[in-house]
Design brief:
Structural class: mainly alpha
Largest sheet: 2 strands, antiparallel
Order of helices and strands: HHHHEEHHHHHHHHHHHHHHEHEHHH
Shape: globular
Mean pLDDT: 92
Radius of gyration: 27 Å
Length: 596
């Protein structure tokens, strides 16, 4: 009996040992993923170390030596960008943030004023006429410490769909922020730095060479990247951005589609950029679902949109039966009203609803988090509908046609929300991407004039318009992740009086939470359909685009002599000639959609 127990114990030990080995042994598929990811990790870790070493080498050196080490550190940071920006978005954003304070937590009553760190802070500090060595020292040390923390905690597990997302993000980032000078405020090296980021894309695609069944496709993609790099070796102000996007960005995106088919990539879900985007400028480029928590309700969506359009045009939703959404948002004016302010009771100019769905925040002060929430704001505003949502529900249900539609289209009893969802669903259809500009950059027609192309290149380059109005929507939602819709302080005046100018009395975002650092901050609107949406600015102060451009060219509020400590415009003066201003306006006029 004792031998039997002994044999049984031995047998159990063997079983347990086999079980432990089986648990520790990863499936072949995951071994392969980790093996390839480790190669990418080696590239990434080396670039991190190089960036850190050059930052640390700035300690105790002369200013001229520090500048040289900074340029090298920045170079390696740009090599890092494709991987860091994908795997650690928050740290990348901090390290590459503009040299302006940011405000977090207002809505949750946990307001924090965050002072910037990172490379742009160092770049500006080291090139000041009177260098504040304490500020520079802190910026270098904090930036280096953050990079060291990242290096200490590097973990990478990149599956095929991660690689596709990473590369697609970087191609888009180069076209939308890289070539605009968004993050190279003093050295103006954004074209060269974009070439560095492409180098990392090449390194990554080389690591995944074994995934290609079509070897010609591998060579073709590498050649496309190298050709783009050659094109980027150019002077910033004269660089042809229109041609770059048409000749390089769009073809790269199409090749990426071929690669994901070749690799048989399966995506678990969609990000902001469509998994099947073939061009930067199309209604298929961005996923509407990404910008709304409420688009999961897509059953009978076409009918809901029609219902929403009826509600949008119905004045019975307002207290006195005299105002509908369409009263202020007129279709023929790109859903604005052509007035400085709709009436004496309104505080602000009526913004366009076209492309409104591609953002995270709504109203000019960003006080609503969704289109559905924005409807509530209009309904409850005493100077607009002047109703409660309960009263709107009662009126809608009194309409037999509406009541039937609600019952048939929505399989729930959330009538309040369903009404708002229908209106929002209609507004989400107002994204055409069929302007003259869109058709030309997609190569569907060749009708842009030389001045219109030059205007786009100025908008995206020397004039720095695109550092706030980001392509492809040309609003303040930052690509390629499209998580944040930016607010800016540009110093808009109360009137066009430039002899004794006064800043607008509307304090914007400040009115919501009384955060001093947010006085005069407003959301960056889209420039699309701008030819139809005059007058301009939150208070309608400017009647023409010429007046708007003159304001920016002279440095915004700072140029008018206002106290602009927190102004977010990049320079005091853009130094644009009259001809260049005219060309930028020519370009903006090409952004008018053929239909709404």
């Amino acid at each position: 009996m004792k031998d039997v127990f002994s044999q049984a114990k031995t047998y159990l030990r063997v079983c347990l040992l086999l079980l432990l080995v089986a648990c520790n042994k990863q499936p072949e598929k995951y071994q392969s993923i980790n093996k390839v990811s480790n190669k990418v990790k080696q590239v990434y870790s080396k670039q991190l170390s190089n960036a850190i070493d050059n930052l640390d080498s700035m300690e105790g050196k002369s200013i001229e030596e520090q500048k040289k080490y900074y340029v090298l550190a920045r170079k390696y940071f740009k090599f890092l960008e494709p991987i860091l920006a994908f795997t650690d978005k928050d740290n990348y954003k901090s390290l590459n943030a503009p040299n302006i304070i940011s405000v977090k937590g207002e809505a949750s009553n946990d307001t924090k004023i965050i002072h910037p760190i990172g490379f742009q802070v160092i770049e500006e500090a080291i090139h000041e006429k009177n260098i504040d060595k304490a500020v520079l020292k802190r910026a270098i040390e904090v930036t280096s410490s953050r990079l060291k923390l990242i290096r200490k905690n590097v973990t990478l597990t990149l599956k095929e769909h991660h690689v596709m997302w990473l590369i697609r993000d970087q191609i888009t980032r180069i076209a939308t922020t890289g070539i605009t000078g968004f993050d190279s405020p003093v050295l103006n090296q954004s074209l060269l730095e974009s070439s560095y980021t492409y180098e990392t894309v090449l390194s990554i695609i080389e690591v995944y060479k074994h995934k290609f069944t079509n070897k010609k496709l591998f060579i073709k993609f590498k050649e496309a990247i190298k050709n783009a790099q050659k094109n980027l070796m150019h002077d910033f102000n004269t660089f042809d951005r229109f041609n770059f996007i048409k000749t390089h960005t769009n073809p790269q995106l199409k090749l990426l589609l071929e690669i994901q088919n070749d690799w048989k990539v399966k995506y678990p879900f969609e990000m902001a950029l469509s998994n099947n985007m073939a061009t930067l400028f199309s209604d298929k480029t961005l996923n509407l679902n990404y910008f709304s928590d409420h688009l999961s309700d897509t059953t009978e969506l076409a009918e809901k949109i029609i219902f929403g359009k009826q509600l949008f045009n119905d004045p019975s939703l307002s207290k006195n039966y005299d105002m509908a959404c369409a009263t202020c948002h007129v279709k023929d004016l790109a859903f604005t009203d052509g007035r400085k302010k709709f009436n004496q009771a309104q505080q602000r100019n009526t913004p366009t609803l076209t492309y409104a769905s591609y953002q995270r925040d709504f109203f000019m002060d960003a006080r609503a988090g969704s289109l559905e929430g924005q409807v509530v704001g209009v309904v409850e505003n005493h100077n607009e509908f002047n109703m409660s949502m309960d009263s709107v529900v009662q009126r809608v249900l009194k309409n037999k046609k509406y009541k039937k539609l609600l019952a048939g289209l929505y399989q729930n009893k959330r009538v309040d929300f369903n009404i708002r969802h229908a209106i929002a669903s209609y507004i989400r259809t107002l994204n055409m991407f069929n302007s003259k500009f869109d058709k030309n950059i997609r190569e569907e027609e060749e009708t842009l004039t030389a001045d219109e192309k030059k205007g786009f290149n100025l908008f995206m380059g020397k004039a720095l318009c695109a550092t706030c109005h980001f392509a492809p929507v040309f609003n303040g939602t930052v690509p390629p992740n499209y998580n944040d819709t930016e607010l800016e302080f540009i110093g808009v005046p109360e009137s066009i009086n430039t002899i004794n100018p006064k800043i607008s009395m509307d304090l914007g975002r400040y009115n919501l939470y009384k955060t001093a650092e947010r006085k005069h901050f407003f959301k960056t609107p889209t420039v699309r359909n701008i030819a139809k949406t005059a007058p301009y600015m939150h208070n309608g102060v400017y009647k023409t685009l010429e007046e708007v451009m003159d304001f920016y060219n002279n440095g915004g509020g700072a140029g008018l002599g206002f106290d602009t400590e927190y102004q977010t415009l990049p320079f005091d003066s853009l130094s644009l000639s009259k001809k260049e201003i005219s060309q930028i306006i020519d370009f903006m006029n090409t952004l008018t959609d053929e239909t709404y």
